[in-house]
Amino acid sequence: MSSNNFDEVLSSLQDAQDSAKLLKILIDVRKKVDADCPKNKENICKIREKGCFKQIVASLQTSKKSTINVSLSILGNCCLDAKCARDVISQYGALSNFNQLLKRYPKDDSINGRVFRIVGNLCQHRDQWAGVIIEKKPQIVIHIVKYLKDSVEEENGKVSEATITMGIRALRVLVNRETLQSLVTTYGVLKTVGMLLIKYGAIWQETKKGESVLINIVKLLHEYSRYRYYPSIQEMRSTDKGDSIVYLSKILLVAPRQVVKIVMNFLKISQLKSDLPVPEIFDSFIEVLSDDTIIQEFNSTCEECIKCLCYLLDHPGNRENERCGDSIPLLINVLSGLTLQTNNKIECSILIISTLKKCKYNFNLIADQVRCNIVTVLNEKIKLIVGSVDPLNINHKSDKKRRNNFLAKFKESKRSKLMVDLNKEDEESSSSDSDEEIDKYYSSVRNDYSPGSSNESEMAMSWTSGLSPPSSPRSRLYGISESDSDDYSPVCSEVDPSDFPLAKPEGEESPNPEIDSKSSDISEETEEIQSFDVDSSSVKQIKGRLVLEIVDLLKTYIKIKPPITQLGTPELLLGLIKSTAYFHWPCSSAILDIVDLIYKILGSHNYLLPLMQSDFIPAVYDMAKIQHGSWCSKCRQFQWISASIIKKLSRVAETGGGKGDIAHKLLRGDNVTKQQLVLVIPYIIRSKAILVKLMLNCGGLEILMKLLKDQSALQTKSIKVLCVLASKKLGIPNPKNVSGIYKNVTGGNTGDTSSVVTFKLDDGSLLSADRGLLSRNSDFFARLLNGDFKESSQDVITLPNVNNKSLRCLLHWIKTDLVEIDIDLNTHLDVIGLCDRFLMEDYRCYLTDCVEKFRLSPDTIPTIYNWSLESRTNLLRVECIAYALVANIIDSERFEMFRNLFDLGYTEELVEDIRKLLVRYMTLNQFCDCKKHKNRNCDKKIHSIY
Length: 946
Description:
By secondary structure, the chain is mainly α. Among the domains are: 1-92; 277-372; 433-444 and 513-518 and 530-653, no CATH class; 654-729, no CATH class; 746-816, Potassium Channel Kv1.1, Chain A; 818-946, no CATH class. The chain contains 51 helices and three strands. It has a three-stranded mixed β-sheet. Helix 13 (189-207) crosses helix 15, helix 25 crosses helix 30 and helix 47 (861-870) runs parallel beside helix 49 (891-902). The termini are far apart.
């Protein structure tokens, strides 16, 4: 029908027509105002503009049911428009006509259903229509209630579900603050609806039919429950059919979300525990979620049941064992079965953990959580987030920062105090001072990362219903108000070396040998993401929220006495450390929260010895090694975390109880325990006095020496520990850094060469030298050539066991000024041996200094040490040991160097040399730390211990 035809239909409607033609016209009008077609809104406006509602309302007075039904259908569709609804009621008095129709046809299903629909459409626009209907035409409300009540007794299907649904909807939209009391107490709406709930609840339990009616009943109850009117509960419990509230638990799966909302609203006004079927509802959810298959499938029903169960536990009154039953063990079991493959599963995990956290003031529920191994479950969740921690993998791309901006962060910020230099960790500052700095840092940068609510019961699920008004605003659960934006990646691109050109002197050791060894293999475009780069930014953000919830829940269990064993496991602690990579350093307070949790766990002495007997402490210590340049904020983050944890362990270990426990195990423990302890003591003991007692008095050093000597898997660990002990704890200086070039060496003019002596060597070669020059530089030759020996009168003297090349070099250096020595190492060492043999002290010291300064390296140490022993001079012997222990080289090179040293066949001598050097520095009351005081004149030489 075209627009012109519709105008003609409306015009003909205004003319007087017989009943048959009127019906035909009304049918044509109804076709053009179908509510399902948005285009027909214009036609509805035309009806109002042309004043055709007058004829339509008047047609309700006819005796033809068909005409009445069509007119009611038209009015029902038109009343969806607020202006049309106003005209129908105000101008044409349709309420009186509706009331008369209900009186004329009290049992007619079709007419009653259409009138109920119109009432519902009217009341959804403005609250005043509900008040007008109840005040002016209460008979309509009375009839709706009576009609629904009578339908309860109807068993032959005379009343359709559609009519019942429209009646329930009308009663739902009639309610507001002004009409609530009269609807509940005067008209008995909830009693009638309760009877319907009982009837259709029983039908649904048996045949699963009548679900649409039940859904509308639940919507009505939810609307009424929002007004916190206690007689509503009383009315529902006192229906003619019995207590209808108990049926909420029986129809729970029809609309679990709305049913739980009803219960939670009624809980705020209930006066008796028996008012609401809370235990039964808990049991229903438990029965559903106890099926492992539904957890594995994780369909919408499973997700909704989990959320509903958590929502019920939001109310403190529901956190009693007699009400919630086995809900806590069930939630832990569900949490254990949830993987982190989708965002929905992660969100459910967050919700469950948040719910468990709210039970922290209920000792019985906390005990239930512990009995269900909640800490183990949380540990598994952290593993799913960060991956395996055995071995600990914190590889990442360097965090690319522009030089000026990055410097501003660390130089102008208070955080610069915490940029820990591990080489200075043993300076005079005490552990208490360091911890005060860390505590000060916490207070200076901590901020609330998740908005909370003053009333925990208001922190409900953010559910909205399209057919019910929204409830009061609620805080968003588990939000993060920090730098966890979607575009954040915990690992960044590599540093551009052109931004920070650093010149490196030739021959100088790199302060970060790990970087230099890998620099040729690293490319900004092709470097493979190894650890935290596998998730998208949105997944990182939601996993970060999960980490924070886990951290908050774990803080609850720290207060339990006796301490929970699982809290101090290396896997959990390393997983927490690794999870800090999901947050941006140094802006995010989440990192501080994680470190604070680790601090509280490590503060208990119960965890000290178990952690010392694991690989936790070495793994944490190794985190401090910078993988990239000094501008990588992620490297500095792990460096700070490592230093903070080591300092905390040091404080605990150096207390009376801590050092007593360690000493007792070293003296009375089994061999395995002793070995495990000595391999970590140097990492965490910072007090030299305590260190000496444990290593010398309690036999820790001897155990280390045995491990070093044995060709076992623990040998490499013992090497690392000995290096930490020597360099970080005892302050043994690197010979390359403290040795100075001996200055008292000058060449001499040959002068008169008439006094020449010739030396005959073992190979028959002859070498000539100035007799006077030799005598001035060597006491040996002075006595040999000028004394009472027969050689003093000989022109050719036999020198046994002397190499031609070595002697020629020595004679050349005597004649000239020593500027630069460029000979092979073996010849250099042989010349030193000749200087020692011929008592040329100045030259020996000078050449030895040259070796210390320029020739010590991982490749040459075995050669030099072997020469020292085989030549029986013991020169450079201790220096080789010192360099092997304290040189700043990567672990692989150090292990290879020690392997070559042991391959020399002097294992006993090597181990004894290391032991004597360590004992010497342990027993010194005061030793000069050259690195600390920057004094090159102190301890310029490592004096021989022989």
